[in-house]
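A quick aside before the break. I want you to see a complete sequence-to-structure record at least once, exactly as it would be stored in a machine-readable document. Don't worry about memorizing anything.
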Amino acid sequence: MALATALIILATTFLRGGAMFSPGALNDQAGAQAIGGVFSHAETEGRCRACHSAIWERETMSDRCLACHTELLRDSRNFHAAMLAQAAQLNCMQCHTDHRGVQASLTWMEVENFPHGDAAGYSLQGHQMTTSGQVFACADCHGQEIGQFDPAACQGCHQQIDAVYSESHLAAFGSACLECHDGVDSYGKAFDHNTKFALLGRHAETTCQGCHLEARTIADLQAAPTGCFDCHAPDDAHQGQFGEDCAACHSPEDWESVTFDHSQSAFPLEGRHAAIECDDCHTNNVFQGTPQTCAACHAGDDAHQGQFGEDCAACHTPENWEDASFDHALSAFPLTGAHTQVECAQCHVNNVFKGTPTRCEGCHADPGFHLGLFGVNCAACHNNDGWSPASFNNPHRFPIDHGESGASQCKTCHPSALTAYTCYGCHEHNQANIASEHREEGISDFNDCMRCHPTGREEEGD
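That is the input. The structure line, written in tokens, reads:
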């Protein structure tokens, strides 16, 4: 009985051409010309293999469709040819179905399931519902011709959503919406600018067209300059003196708030220099070429009137102009001995430094005591440690150390002047005794002791 049943089913299937498995009647709308030998799908009734392939065959049902509808692939600009070229997984049955009745439409497409992103390069993810709350239909964007698209359709809808923004956006970026928009708002109104040029500070307040001027494509948008100088060169108050690295001083938060690290420049600010205003040195916003020498700025305040040249740093520091420390050892007149204790003004009267005498007689006039006997060679007797005591080093006609107490002081023999001498300062006799003793010897001229006692010894007299 089982075998008999199977044979009956096979016979019926063969005799009816598989009609017993058909889900419904085929469409009988006839075309103007025969395609594949028939004018309508209904004429293939009983020949399922005309459209259907066996499960073991490599050929698909779409292959069977295209075997008849060859005109769809003749022109690459044809909508169907474009769809098939862009979407390898697309098949005819996604949009065109039959067996739904002789008068039923052959096109039955669920828009939300159509792979519009793969097939047309534009996702419908952001276009599920119209502004009226209805599901989008193909005709809403394509009109009566599915292969056509008018950008005005975008404008018509978006004007209803936000007329002001739509008008400004259209004026800034043109009407070729598909050049930038892909249906998922990658470059839409809510674009995240967290790219290689994040919008910070005042940049976040700038309009898109402020930087993307005349941009009409994604490539145009991506080609927008990112350097400060690219946009702000006309506003550069420095006139290019500092180059193009604006970020070294300025930030996007506020163009006027400048933080310049002067320590990175050729003239680091130290001491009092760090407290002065920028325009004290950079007059009229001139920065490049600003002088760096002390004299260039402080010549008008030079109390020395240029006597020391322009190397102010030899004595002064940026910490305090008044606290000067001059190393006299580096000058032509190093200070030694008692000279180190002398006030500057004692030698440099009225702040006159250049031309100050460096010889003893320039400051130390020959005392009346010398009466010009020794000339100007003070160092022959005196030194810098003290004006006195002095040591006479020239040959002396009379031995200075002829007594028992060693060398005598000048004033011992020359109490009033070096041109006159006396022996009474040491010897224990007075003038009366000397006169009496010498007269007894028959010596009448006894006032010139040296004539008879050239060495100070008594036996050498005559």
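Two observations worth writing down. The chain has four domains: 1-108, 126-226, 234-292, 295-358. The mean pLDDT is 81. We'll return to this after the break.
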